[in-house]
Design brief:
The structure holds two protein chains of two kinds. By secondary structure, chain A is mainly α. Chain A has a domain at 382-522 and 531-539. In chain A, 64% of the residues lie in helices and 2% in strands. In chain A, helix 1 packs across helix 8 and helix 16 (451-465) packs antiparallel against helix 18 (526-560). By secondary structure, chain B is mainly α. Chain B has seven helices and four strands. In chain B, the strands form two sheets. Chain B has a two-stranded antiparallel ribbon. The model of chain B has no long low-confidence stretch (mean pLDDT 95). Classes of the chains: A mainly alpha, B mainly alpha.
Chain lengths: 565, 196
Amino acid sequence: MEVLDMGLFALFAFTVVVFGFFLGNYVYKVYDGHATFLDSVMTPIENALFRISAIKAEKSQSFKEYTLSLMVFNLFGIFILFFILYFQSGMGLNPQNFSNLSWHLALNTAISFVTNTNWQSYGGESTMSYFSQMAGLSVQNFLSAATGAAVAVALMRGLTGRGIGNFYVDTTKTTLRILLPIAFVYAIFLMSQGVIQTFSSYVELTTIEGVKQTLAMGPVASQESIKMLGTNGGGFFNVNSAHPFENPNELTNFIQIFSIFLIPIALLFAYGKFAGNRREGIAIFGAMALLFALTLGATYYAESQGNAMLTQLGVEAGPSMEGKEVRFALGASSLFATVTTAASCGAVNAMHDSFSPLAGGVLMLQMMVGEVIFGGVGAGFYGMMIYALLSMFMIGLMVGKTPMYLGKKIEAYEIKAVIIALLLPSAAILGFSAIAANCADGLAGLNNAGPHGLGEILYAYTSAAANNGSAFAGLTANTPFYNVTLAIAMFIGRFGVIIPMIAIAASMSNKKTYALSSGSVRSDNMTFTIFLAFTVLILGALTFLPALTFTAIAEHVLMLSGKLF
Amino acid sequence: MFKELEKSVIVFSGLALICGLAYPFTIYAIGNSAFAPEAKGSLVYEGKTPIASTLIAQNFTQPQYFHPRPSAAGADGYDGASSSGSNLGYTSQKLHDAVKERVEAYRAENNLSNTQKVPMDAVTTSGSGLDPHITVANATIQAKRIAAARGVEESKMIEAIHKNAQQPYWGIIGEEKVNVVTLNLTLDREFGKVKI
């Protein structure tokens, strides 16, 4: 078994890096304005959009212009999505006659999907009309991922001395030239494997034993592909990629995991091209890969230990299968869980709430450090740049040299922005968790007692502020308290990072680039890779170790002493 | 500000039309011409009425059928319109009690001794509550009961399990497992339905 799982991990790493490399070349060409094979189809559409909206595509925006464009576009997206959900029953394509969402659920869901979080306080098949899923949520699966990628590219351009570009242009290009073509082919593949794509009402059948069963239906395949590719993670159905209609077999599962990391890795290779030095991208990649190997190893090991409490009851020894599907079992469930929380995806193929205490803790830690281990589309790159700039700043101070990154000085302005981007999500996670753990509204939603119950709260705000969207799903979050506080956490976690990063991009883009001398601190070698990985680990640990001690670690220790709650 | 909003609205509308309407309907058209059975839910029909999806577990309780894994979907389990896991953690008393009960029930229905170990997948709820698969070990233990209920030799059941077992993709992705729905359909086809 272990050998097979190692084979799976190796195959995954190999394929995603190879495909990421080739896609990286293409992505770079798209953003840098080179000719690509889709020009004949997409250029006329883009030109028409930019002409009607009077967008000056060639002109790079300033920090203020870029931020204004991004915020207006995203706030408008929240407004439209809220409107669709709040008036769902009047929108059509609603064969199950689902009613309108409550104001707080509509607000939570709108912010959730626009911020690329895809936290879901609802079960899809019992709440959402096909129209809401397809024309509401799915659209944001594209646009939120495109927004993240646009910001990442703005930062790449800024760091390498170019103008940061135009928000609308990069968002449109990401959507039409990267996300849509891949999602299209991907969705067709998914259907060939059994993922459904239908607008019929739910199937009522009489089972082989003669009992009534209702099967939820819907246009799943088109949403499933972009949900994974855009690291959105919002499932069509309540149980997300554990549902056989979303993820029917091992092959679709493999491709789903693969597609979470695909674009984040491609962006790293594209970054190397922007920097004119492939090793700049590889150094960042190395730090992420190192951290990922650690977290995957930890999750897998913790899960492989199984639950001693079950063995005592007469169940065969082995990994716990509570919350897992037979077709995925230990290896593919651990890999999926680690990848989905390393990236800001948040799709799940097994219930994280039923994972072992330490595995649950590792998943949380990955989100707490800001999902910088490959991370979300765009978000992983700009998130890791927070740590990269901080690393170069600290190295500079330690060796007594002016801190620089890619030959540009890192000064007070950039460090202030970095600190804001680091502190805001952390404050949201710990602050809101503390509030929820101390009020009746917060405690009312718990499904588990003891430290694992506190873990459900901590996981929720971590997932929200990190824009992940996965959950310890036992928590009943569809209440005004949770919907509103989680929505605020998601908003802070998204735009509280994006805006400082645009500021850094714009400020760096205007700075003089110094040529590297023999004494310069380099960012394209192994030393930097290791320093960067440790910066992530140490900052994450310092900030969140106390909170994890009260949840995952306490639960683990109590479990070893045989305590039940 | 108003100009900015105008730009946003235009770009948003253009992309929303393409990604939110044109794209899913195109996929729908392709699916329903190229992969119609799969895109419609892999349904199995008896005459014109659907009796199962090969991807979704059903609640088999009668002795002549292989039983699926326990389910937390919906109030009574196996609710195809309300997928769910139990979401109970390692230290949950509720999980402890539920598994204890299931272990006893599994031993009783399969005529096992009080000391015999029970397969993990047979007594834990799946992630979706709709997992159609069980392990080959689980199926093998159930074979005796089913053979007795159908009045056929146990070896025929073991044979059916192995004929229906699905191997890992390319030898490395996945586990060896068997689909309860298709396996039970095979039994009814080969050995006839058992009248109750």
